[in-house]
Amino acid sequence: MARSVLERARTAPPRYWLVGLVVIFFLGFPTVISSFLASEWTQALVLAIAIMGLNILVGYSGQLSLGHGALMALGAYTSAIIVHDYQVDYLVTIPIAGLLTGGIGFLFGIPALRLSALYLALATFALAVVTPSLIKRPAGLTGGVQGILVPQPDPPALASSAYSAVTGTAMTSEQWIYYITLFCALVLFWLAWNLVRHRPGRAMRAIRDGEVAAAASGINIAGYKTLAFAISAFYAGVAGSLFGLTIGFVSPDTFPVALSIQLLVGAVIGGLASIPGPLLGAIFAYFLPIESSQWVPSQTWLPDQITSTVKNAGPAVSYGVVLILLMIFAPTGLVGLLTRGYAALNRRLRGAGDRETGHLPPDPQTV
Predict the structure, then answer these.
(1) What is this structure's pTM?
(2) Taking every pair of C-alpha atoms in the chain, what is the biggest distance, in angstroms?
(3) Could you tell me how far CA 271 lies from the centroid of its own chain?
(4) Confidence class of residue 350 from pLDDT cuts 50, 70 and 90?
(5) Can you tell me the distance from the alpha carbon of 198 to that of 196, in angstroms, rounded to the nearest whole number?
(6) 171 is a domain residue
(7) Least enclosed by CB within 10 Å: which of 59, 189, 273, 352?
(8) End-to-end distance of the chain based on CA atoms, in angstroms?
(9) Tens of pLDDT, residues 151-170
(10) CB 333: neighbour CB atoms within 10 A?
(11) 15 and 160 share one domain
């Protein structure tokens, strides 16, 4: 049995090895960074979960949404209210928030079937606009403008002792929340990978490429469109619940319209209709405005107009510049750019190997 496992590992595709290295990297990363940086990377992983759900809706089923920040708010407030009013363990509320938000997304997907792509985008954008105001109304339930405090849990004894045995230091609450979020991200990314490889994923891609042809092939258009909305909302609800746990409170100002735009930008930057795209897009969407706001003012060679514009406009300038560059040099996102680069490098290496073994004539340019 051990020999068969080794044979399967030896013949595994390179992408599996890359996935394993990425998982090992994220598992060990909190051990070499501070608790503050661990909290920032936790928020990036939360965005990756939400973008993965948005990617299923936009990238695979072809439906545009500009209101996923509102779905994250629903998931965050669901967990916060259950914890605050009923003293339930926060970890128990994460799947509850996801299922409730998924059900709301399924119900929203039914009338969305009658809307074209443009009007669907406007409807979801309107949802993101009115959500902060709606949250303030039932002040007795949601805390109004003050919001709800979410106590961050201490790491359990088993996890803390294991972490201390490896690193020699005690595990903080921020690092424990990081590992909770990483576990949820791994499970949800694995579920998305299985979804797109089987019949539901193939049906969604067929609907995205052409509804008439998909209907002629016997695909239930309405069923798979509402299913995509439900799954996407489930991911957003889980992300919202984890987001509230990460920052320690939820309020109407925590989920502005800019959050929905940030999620869509992350999906486009990473690459639509890809599994690793949401992770790359989330890292860029979260850290790009932070790094640009620190890097641009330190560059004395830049004109004062550019420096002041970045300071005043904030993430909008960074997002705009990156999106313009991506549309020019990487229209399929970072994943598409990396894939093309790997394919070109692989072809060059194979060509060099064939010339060395005499299978191909030497390149005239190299003679």
Answers:
(1) 0.91
(2) 80
(3) 11
(4) confident
(5) 6
(6) yes
(7) 352
(8) 51
(9) 888 899 999 999 998 888 89
(10) 24
(11) no
